[in-house]
Design a protein that fits this description.
With 242 residues, the protein is mainly beta. Helix content is 10%, strand content 31%. Strands 11, 12, 14, 15 and 16 form a 5-stranded antiparallel β-sheet that branches. It is elongated and about 80 Å long. It starts with a strand and ends in a 7-residue tail after the last strand.
Length: 242
C-alpha cells in the first residue's frame, strides 16, 4: 500500500496483490489550473488521477477526489475469499477498479467504467505540444477576369495538436544566432481527428529543404496556458528561390 500526503495532494492508497506498506511523497502534481509538468502535463480543467503514486492519467478534479475516497475505503470493501478471488476479493456489489494493471481497489461497477473511459481519453487530455511542418502554395490572385499565376514556391506551414484551448505562440528562429525570423500567436481550437487544441498556420517563409541543404533553423510552439514548449522542429530557411 502506498500513501502520499502533501499540501496539494491528499492521501492516496493503491492496492495491488503482494504489495506491502510504504510511504512516499510526490511533488508537483497538477491542479485544475494548468502548469508545465513535463510530458504528462494535463490540459486546463484536468488533474492527475493519482490512483497510485505513478498514475498520471488526466481526469476531472471530481474524479480525483472520488479516487482518493475509494482508496481510503479499500480495506473496508474487501471480502477475502469471496468467489475464490483471494485476499483482495471484493464484497458483493463491488469490483476491482483496474485503473492500472494490478489495481485491486474495490469500487462500484460505474466507477470501474469511468476509469476505463479516462484511460482511453488519457492522450487527448495531455499537453504533449506536438508540432510538425507541412507546405502550402499560393493560389492564383484574381481581380475580375484577370488572374496572376502563383509563383509555385513551397512555403512553410506549421501544425500542432495536444495543446490547451487558447493562445499558442509559434516561432521560427535561425540557428546560428537564435534570431526570430517569423512569429505568430494563434488560437488552438477543436478539430476532428486531432487531440486537444489544434491549429495550422501558414508562414511567409520559403521551404528551402531539399537534398544536400541541411536545416539551418527551427520552429517551436508555446502553449500560453501551461507555459509548455513543443520540441524543436528543424526547418531550412533563407533561400530566395529553390
Amino acid at each position: 500500500m502506498t500513501v502520499k500526503n502533501s499540501v496539494r495532494r491528499a492521501v492516496v492508497l493503491g492496492i495491488t496483490a503482494g504489495m506491502t506498506a510504504a510511504t512516499a511523497v510526490v511533488a508537483g502534481a497538477p491542479t485544475a489550473t494548468a502548469e508545465d509538468f513535463g510530458p504528462d502535463t494535463c490540459r486546463q480543467g484536468y488533474v492527475w488521477r493519482e490512483a497510485r503514486a505513478s498514475d498520471r492519467v488526466c481526469v476531472t478534479p471530481a474524479t480525483r477526489e472520488r479516487t482518493r475516497y475509494d482508496n481510503s475505503r479499500a480495506a473496508s470493501r474487501r471480502d477475502p475469499g469471496n468467489g475464490g478471488n483471494g485476499p483482495y476479493a471484493c464484497r458483493d456489489g463491488y469490483v476491482w477498479r483496474e485503473a492500472f494493471p494490478g489495481d485491486l481497489v474495490c469500487v462500484t461497477p460505474a466507477t470501474r467504467s469511468q476509469a476505463r473511459r479516462d484511460n482511453q481519453a488519457a492522450d487527448s487530455r495531455r499537453v504533449s505540444a506536438r508540432l510538425w511542418k507541412s507546405r502550402w502554395y499560393a493560389q492564383p490572385d484574381c481581380d475580375g477576369d484577370t488572374c496572376t499565376a502563383p509563383d509555385g514556391i513551397a512555403r512553410i506551414q506549421l501544425n500542432g495538436d495536444h495543446y490547451n484551448f487558447g493562445e499558442v505562440r509559434v516561432v521560427v528562429r535561425r540557428d546560428r544566432d537564435n534570431r526570430v525570423v517569423w512569429s505568430r500567436t494563434v488560437r488552438a481550437t477543436a478539430h476532428r481527428g486531432h487531440a486537444g487544441g489544434s491549429f495550422a498556420v501558414r508562414t511567409n517563409l520559403n521551404d528551402c529543404a531539399r537534398s544536400g541543404r541541411p536545416a539551418n533553423g527551427h520552429a517551436r510552439a508555446y502553449d500560453v496556458t501551461s507555459g509548455r514548449w513543443s520540441a524543436r522542429i528543424p526547418v531550412t530557411i533563407g533561400c530566395a528561390v529553390l
